Amino acid sequence: MALRNAILRHLRVPVQNLGLNQSQIGFLGSIRSFSSHDDHLSREAVVDRVLDVVKSFPKVDPSKVTPEVHFQNDLGLDSLDTVEIVMAIEEEFKLEIPDKEADKIDSCTLAIEYVYNHPMSS
């Protein structure tokens, strides 16, 4: 937990330019700019947005990203990369995932489940 907090204080995640205009660009180049604050998102919407965040991560080969992909085993990411992806998911969905829960998220499956089961109220 202390490591994650130290990383969160000093980490900057690079943003990829996808050739989109300013109104289309969200965190990490995501095309979607809406958040889960408005209404409970469908599972499909959560899956799409989580996959977009992971595909946008600089060290990830987008062709390998699926809803079942494991960050370390399948994508070869280390624990710091996993923390960065979880932070990017928090930004995308305007969530604050408690450290205890964030430490468990090591795959797209777990990220999707967490986001889908923790909608934000307006």
Helix content: 40-55%
User: What is the SS-derived class?
Assistant: mainly alpha
Strand content: under 5%
| Count of runs of 4 or more consecutive helical residues | 5
Average of per-residue pLDDT values:
80
Radius of gyration: 14 Å
Poorly predicted regions:
20-38
Number of DSSP E strands: 0
Helix/strand order, N-terminal first: HHHHH
Distance between the termini: 29 Å
Task: Describe the largest sheet.
Answer: none
| C-alpha geometry | globular
Walkthrough of the structure:
There is one protein chain. Helix content is 43%, strand content 0%. The protein is built from five helices and no strands. Helix 2 (43-56) packs across helix 3. The longest helix is centred in the C-terminal third of the chain and has 15 residues, at 79-93. The N and C termini lie far apart (29 Å). The relative contact order is 0.19. It comes from Camelina sativa. It is found in: Mitochondrion. Carrier of the growing fatty acid chain in fatty acid biosynthesis.
Brief summary:
This protein has five helices and no strands. It is mainly α and 122 residues long. It is globular and about 30 Å long.
